[in-house]
Amino acid sequence: MDIFLVEAIVNGILLGGILALLALGLNLIFGVIDVVWIAYAELVMCGMYAIYWLYAVHGVPLPIAAPIAIVFVAILGVLVHKLIISPILGSAPINQLLATGGLLFFLQSFATLLFGADFRNIGLRLPIVEVGELFVSFARLLAFGVALLGMLGLWLFLKRTYVGTAIRAIAQDREIMVLMGVDPSRVYLITSALGGGLAGLASALLVLQYDVHPFIGLSFGPITFMICVLGGLGSMVGGFIAAFIMSQIISVGGFYTSIELSYVLAFLLFIVMIFVRPQGLFGVKS
Amino acid sequence: MKPGWILLGLALLLPPFLPISDYTLHIIILVLLWAFVYTSWTVMGRFGLVSLGHGAFLGLGTYTTALLWNHYGLSPWLGLPLGVIVAVAVALVIGYPCSRLKVVGHYFALVTLALTEVVRLSIVAWRDVTGGSLGMTPNTVPPNSFEAMQFTRFTWYWVALAAWAIGLYVWHRVDRSMTRAAMDAISDDETAAAAVGIDVTRQKLAVTTISAAMTAVGGALIGQYQMYLNPETMAGVGVSLQIVFAAISGGMYVILGPTVGAVLTIVLQEFLRILFGTRFIGAAATIYGIMLILFIIFMPTGICGVIVDKLRKRRA
Amino acid sequence: MLEVAGLEAGYGGFRALHDIALTVEAGEAVAVVGPNGAGKTTLMRAISGLLAPRAGRVVFEGTDLAAVPPHRIVERGIAHVPENRRLFPRLTVEENLKMGAFSPAARPHFAERLEWVYSLFPRMRERRAQVAGTMSGGEQQMCAIGRALMSKPKLLLMDEPSAGLAPVIVDQVFDLVRRIRQEGFTVLIVEQNVRQVLELVDRAYVLEVGTIRKSGTAAALKSDPAIREAYLGI
Q1: pLDDT in tens, A127-172
Q2: Is the torsion defined by CA of A90, A94, A100, A106 positive or negative?
Q3: Helix/strand/coil (H/E/C) assignment for every residue in chain C
Q4: Domain C2-230 adopts which CATH fold?
Q5: B162 to chain A, minimum CA–CA distance in Å?
Q6: How many CB atoms lie within 10 A of CB A123?
Q7: Searching chain A, which residue's CA lies closest to the CA of residue B241?
Q8: What is the number of structural domains in chain A?
């Protein structure tokens, strides 16, 4: 097989890890609060800028800057819920989606205001790992590994703890949570913090590989929504698998055509899927 | 209402003859053209069909027109209708399954979002022909060439005014052609609508087609007026959201709502841009973003919606 | 233990209950019976906090529950087995039971209570890792009751535990309820299956069109001619 094709497949798998992490965060919020955070990828952008600012501008070492960024984005997540979503929790779902769309504009332009529209990078060059004839970027390997660990951590949290179980339960029957002694608004806040934290983790991984600019969210925000829906909203396993399907389409498709056309292919697949199997690949038909 | 409309019409005949700057006239033309696009969006948006994909129709309209002119020398007067046909075809391909399979709410928003990204990315990918993300400029001919649809600003004012007026007329006709009850039924409860004999699929497709066609016309006109096309500003998520927000902040259930939205957003943007100048790039859009959020939280029916509500209460 | 007075509740413009007065003493089993749509489920929901009453009082052990946030009512000792069981269909049996022990007071006792629920319902132990939505109706009812017991309630509210089950299973469910009584729980049960429930409880209230029409001991109601005609088909 063509070595470059193998490389494309490997890179697709590595990209899939991060996309899965992002989709998981979005899926969590979607499943629990029943809201689409259109600005989810913009939270990632905020985290990337936070790390850039701490590390490249103020010289804070990365192992310290990254956790700070994760906490920062988690707090942003809580603020998004408190300030934007919870006042309109009772109104039409589409209004909630649009309100976070306003947030998207706000975050993009606020980032432009603070940092300008230039591409910035943290100026850290990680080595290339050579496996046989294959060249793989260490940053991507690291990102993949950490993303998997992050997801494992989340899975354990959701599986083992009371709050985690409540987070899974609330998506299945919102109303009776009260009978269990669960305060839904608290679960929403915790979920928002978790979703934000996952975006923060993703930002720490992405900043190793990509330049940050105010509009970077647009390059992986839409694909994240598509992955969530493709996997079946609320189905975390589905989102995980869908992330790898989409990342292969992008990576291998990009190898044969161009990166834009591979995204076109991914989006077309999404549209067709909605028509053929609206509950997603692994979703439960309601 | 009648005398009000006549007054408004007469007032709108004046601007080109007033001693206003070229810049002011330019802003008025932009407001009219975008108001036309926003009005087009509400033709379907008010039925609960919240499309995040109107950037697709805008892009198809404008790029089809400009590409045919640049590469085949086909006059925009022919290119524009072809652009409309392309946009309508795409709208039907997406809209038919959506209405048959009852793809609504979030799902509808995401399908249309995917669509607009497909159009944007296709334009970028086809960079040899479209200029990709650098954008493209229609080949210029001496100014005020009727064949190339390249006019002076004075003429453009009348074109924009006509487009806007036609947009309002179409909105009004759509409003009249369906009873209030049928309309509410479609957006609120499809099963109920079907039960009282409303062909939901057909009605939805009809408004989708009209809306897409109008948006394509708007796109083509804006492209011809600005003489510059860019996939980021004429297709894709960014412009789609811009359309939705302007329409909602003005009020999508009132005929002049989208126009008010256009005035508000464009004048505000320009005002903030001049206020902050180039010292604070992004400041204008930051404030705009905050206002959008506040609008959706506190005024979901838009400025006109709130005004109409107040008037109704006073009368009652 | 529980005292309901002047209770009015409803949904939107619809008044489902009015002027309800009802008491349950510690150790008692009390039934609320009545035709479909009489407001029985609404009554249960108003007691457990799923629905805020419009007027009147629900007093539990001397505390007016209006002052207690709904999600705190279970801590006070009221557990509600809702109509149609309402398990979390994609959680396992054990996870469903875990949700029953969510409140801070119950968490430290999770292991011992799980053991206790499994000893009450050995079937649940067999199914502990099974996804709840895939079980039979009777098993789901067991699981729902088990989930409510995990909070070790002082008062157990049961809303139509026999609904939608095959006759054989209905008998089993009533056996379950009987065993729970023997364990010493105070029970307030809503049932359509009047004949069987009257065999089980000490007292009963008859709820019709949103208001209490009759009340008395199970024995007295069983011999009441009107009740016999309307509910027992005799």
Answers
A1: 888 887 888 888 899 999 999 999 999 999 999 999 999 999 998 8
A2: negative
A3: CEEEEEEEEEECCEEEEEEEEEEECCCCEEEEECCCCCCHHHHHHHHHCCCCCCEEEEEECCEEHHHCCHHHHHHHCEEEECCCCCCCCCCEHHHHHHHHCCCCCCHHHHHHHHHHHHHHCHHHHHCCCCEHHHCCHHHHHHHHHHHHHCCCCCEEEEECCCCCCCHHHHHHHHHHHHHHHHCCCEEEEEECCHHHHHCCCCEEEEEECCEEEEEEEHHHHHHCHHHHHHCCCC
A4: Rossmann fold (3.40.50)
A5: 31
A6: 8
A7: A101
A8: 1
Among candidate residues B107, B106, B53, the one with its CA nearest the CA of residue A276 = B107
Which residues lie closer than 8 Å to C232 by C-beta, 6 or more apart?
C194, C195, C222
A158 close to A172: Cβ distance less than 8 angstroms = no
Residues of A in contact with C82 (CB under 8 A): 176, 179
Interface test with B, best of A105, A114, A220, A257 (most B CBs within 10 A): A105
Residue B272 touches partner A, C-beta closer than 8 Å:
no
Lowest mean pLDDT among B17-31, B135-149, B191-205: B191-205
Contact A106 B280 (CB under 8 A): no
CA distance A137 to A7: 11
pLDDT digits (tens, 9 = 90+) for B45-55: 888 888 999 99
Longest CA pairwise span in chain C (Å) = 51
**Any domain includes A247:** yes
Mean pLDDT of the residues in chain B: 86
Average pLDDT over residues B268-291: 77
CB distance from A82 to chain B under 8 Å? Answer: no
CA A36 to CA B70: how far, in whole Å?
A: 41
Nearest Cα of chain A lies from the Cα of C230 at a distance, in angstroms, of 33
Instruction: Give the torsion through C-alpha atoms of A252, A253, A259, A263, to 10 deg.
Output: -120
Looking at the complex, does the CB of residue C48 fall below 8 Å from at least one CB of chain A? yes
A139 vs A130: CA distance, rounded Å: 13
Tell me the C-alpha distance between C198 and C215, whole Å: 12
CATH code of residue A24: 1.10.3470
The length of chain B is: 316
Neighbours of chain B (3+ CB pairs under 8 A): A
Chains C and B lie in contact, requiring 3 or more CB pairs less than 8 Å apart: no
Q: Is B296 on the interface with A (CB under 8 A)?
A: yes
Say whether A218 and B285 touch across the interface (CB within 8 A). no
The domain limits of chain C are 2-230
Which residues are CB-contacts of A87 (< 8 A; sequence separation ≥ 6)? B297
Instruction: Look at the block and give the residue holding tokens 């603070």.
Output: A114
In tens, the pLDDT along B116-145 reads 999 999 999 999 989 888 999 998 887 668
What's the domain range around A151?
A: 3-276
Tell me which chain A residues have a C-beta less than 8 angstroms from the C-beta of C86: 173, 175-176
In 10 A of CB A143, how many CB atoms?
A: 24
C interface mutation test: which of A163, A170, A172, A180 has the most C CBs within 10 A?
Answer: A180
Token pair, residue A121, equals 């990078």
Q: Please report, as a single letter, which amino acid is at residue A89.
A: L
Strands C29-33 and C203-208: parallel
pLDDT category at A283 given cuts 50, 70, 90 is low
